[in-house]
Amino acid sequence: MTPLLQVNRLTKMYGPRIGCKDVSFDLYPGEVMGIVGESGSGKSTLLNAMAGHHAPDRGEVIFDTRTEGPRDTLKMSEPERRMLGRTDWAFVHQHARDGLRMSVSAGGNIGERLMAVGDRHYGEIRAQAADWLGRVEIAETRIDDRPSAFSGGMQQRLQIARNLVTAPRLVFMDEPTGGLDVSVQARLLDLLRGLVREMGLSAIIVTHDLAVVRLLADRLMVMKDGHVVESGLTDQVLDDPQHAYTQLLVSSVLQV
Amino acid sequence: MSDYNFAYLDEQTKRMIRRAILKGLAIPGYQVPFASREMPMPYGWGTGGVQVSAATLTPDDTLKVIDQGADDTTNAVSIRKFFERTAGVETTEVTAKASVIQTRHRIPEAALNEDQILVYQVPIPEPLRFLEPRETETRKMHALEEYGLMHVKLYEDISQHGDIATSYAYPVKVEDRYVMDPSPIPKFDNPKLEMAAIQLFGAGREQRIYALPPYTKVVSLDFEDFPFVASKADHPCDLCAAEDSYLDEVILDDAGNRMFVCSDTDYCRSRRAEGHVGRLGEQEGAAA
Questions:
Q1: What is the 8-class DSSP label of residue A255?
Q2: How distant is the Cα of B66 from the closest Cα of chain A, in angstroms?
Q3: pLDDT under 50 in chain B at which residues?
Q4: Is B144–A107 a contact, with Cβ atoms under 8 angstroms apart?
Q5: Taking CB atoms and an 8 Å cutoff, what residues of chain A touch B156?
Q6: Which residues of A196-206 are buried (b: 16+ CB within 10 A; e: fewer)?
Q7: Which pTM does this prediction carry?
Q8: Which stretches of A67-107 are assigned E, i.e. beta strand?
């Protein structure tokens, strides 16, 4: 089977400082990869470099495109990469405000990707928006409300709906549950797990919350100071950590 | 008169503006940056249009200036006087006699011909501005033809008002390529953008010039199930009885009486001269 995404020796430097260095992994269709590590360990840098938000210094990000098979997205032209960014890829920001248009209604937010790929039928766009609101457990009556009138958890769910409406194959998530209280986190994780299974999505989730990866991720990479220090199956890494840093990370989780 | 260079601007500046105009004509709908000059009038009063007109005028030209269709409102009168004084060109109020027409927010009702140039005053040239505040991003969106966002605005209109409520500055797509803001003309005028005359758009504060060559394809954006409608007030003109012209609503008293009159004063006058009389046309004549 062809991996959906192959990352080879991806390196991003900030001047003399290391953002992330020589990161390599394969992601297969339907697989969820978790990236954990402390603040400043290069998780978000890695995610942004893979998603094309900033240019890495070295390495390859090979994506299995629908039409042309595996292609290095870093060598793609910008229009192609941006097209990928609004069709087969999705990016869920930590802060919903970064990923939503706050001055546009919920329906418009969900419809934007559809209109960006050429949908020009108002009725159909609206029906899809309503359908997606339902899927992320937001009442359909809120379709014309602006995200600023939504709670934090609802904004995050709206951001997810807005991203998944074009049925992407790969979702990048940057701390999707950050800043939410635990009960809302639990529901969001439940929802994400359902959507990932139901749509057969592949996802890369960056988080510092080990509970999130325990629930969602099949595989796990642990990062420290820009390097991947340990990787493997989630349960294996969390239950039997080998690297000293991973052991520290696992043991720092509060047990209640 | 000799105190000014012809049409106020110095020759180097006019040359710079003409280069921007030519580039704009070569790439219809593309916003060409230019080094907008300080003009002897405030921003928002047509500094962009005035610079484009100044660069376009020749001593043989006949200039007409309209503001919201009218020849006799402040903006039109002051710009006309400005060019009378600095360029000494002939001015007219008759659309057909003018070779250069500077306009604020209207296209004349009478069809223009190939020997005419229509110059628009543009406040905000960027159609995506209120949706995407970053200039770097809007430029990229134009470059990559990413215009989905424009439809988000129309979507919002329908979801809030049940219909596309944008009634002026209605976005258009030029030659299947650039999305363009036609300046705040009423959407009634949008179909007229495909015309025989050259159309130049100048935005002074924003320092942009763009253009439509004659007979350029201009399509108003819409949805399949909510097509574009060039709407106007559903009345005939009360002075000249025209049913095909764009109307202004004028409140007559505090008892709810109102009248609808052509916003294009020259069109209305020429129709009345031909003997067309509207509902209140007689009184108007008697009073005058």
A1: P
A2: 35
A3: 1, 286-288
A4: no
A5: 104-105, 108
A6: beeeebbbbbb
A7: 0.86
A8: 69-72, 89-92
